[in-house]
Write a structure and sequence with these properties.
By secondary structure, the protein is mostly helical. The protein is built from eleven helices and no strands.
């Protein structure tokens, strides 16, 4: 089953980064469904997947607290001149308000977050835990989470001022940015996995993941409004 899960993830990674934008959320939903079917065939139950009935309410509370914490952190960072450029993602600075609302309410929660958290902190985490133990699950899911971001990191280098400012332009800067993104997201994956272990729920990682991505989009959009006056078109890549 582990091999089947990896095949689903490889196909999903290529599809979500190469198909037209309109297919992003449906692809994520279908891939998530496939992963849950594989989990069921592997004998996993809701508790194994971090969705046990006894952990739902505590998990939701954790999720809300983490969303509020990220909101405060981003608000502070976006208002300080020294750190404001970290949020200057041109994919979203020129995007319209309706499109940002779509990202916050549909694309990110039911696309990016749903697939990645069910894949890495739920199904894959449970499968590796049962076979090799919790700490192997933390390591394996974190490494794979980092590798998952290879394709999305390429357009991010082109669109994010802080990224290409730090690593330079051209092919060399792009691949340095890709490696740095893989390492950073793998380290972030460790944090998500430990949160999954500590809370015994996948809901806190889901809340944190949505906050980091969704509120980042919101802040970039806001910065676009105060610096350029708004307007624009739908970005091609996913957050």
């Amino acid at each position: 089953m582990l091999v089947a899960v990896l095949i689903v993830l490889v196909v999903a990674s290529i599809a979500t980064n190469r198909l037209p934008t309109r297919w992003y959320v449906p692809t994520c939903v279908v891939a998530t469904g496939c992963l849950l079917v594989l989990a069921r065939l592997d004998g996993l139950d809701a508790a194994d997947l971090g969705l046990g009935p006894g952990t739902v309410l505590p998990g939701l509370i954790w999720a809300v607290v983490l969303v509020l914490a990220v909101a405060l952190l981003y608000l502070g960072g976006a208002t300080l001149p020294r750190t404001r450029n970290l949020f200057a993602d041109r994919r979203f600075m020129g995007t319209g308000g309706q499109q940002v609302a779509y990202y916050l309410s549909v694309r990110i929660p039911f696309g990016t977050v749903l697939l990645e958290e069910i894949a890495f902190r739920s199904v894959l985490f449970a499968m590796v835990t049962i076979r090799h133990g919790t700490w192997w699950a933390v390591v394996v899911t974190s490494v794979l989470f980092g590798l998952w971001h290879v394709l999305p990191a390429i357009p991010m280098h082109q669109s994010h001022d802080a990224v290409h400012g730090a690593f330079g332009i051209g092919a060399r800067g792009r691949w340095i940015a890709v490696v740095a993104t893989v390492v950073a997201t793998a380290v972030g994956g460790v944090g998500f996995a430990l949160l999954r272990v500590w809370t015994d729920s996948v809901l806190p990682p889901i809340g944190l993941h949505w906050a980091l991505n969704g509120l980042g989009v919101a802040v970039a959009w806001w910065l676009g409004r105060i610096t350029h006056g708004g307007g624009g078109r739908e970005p091609r890549v996913s957050p």
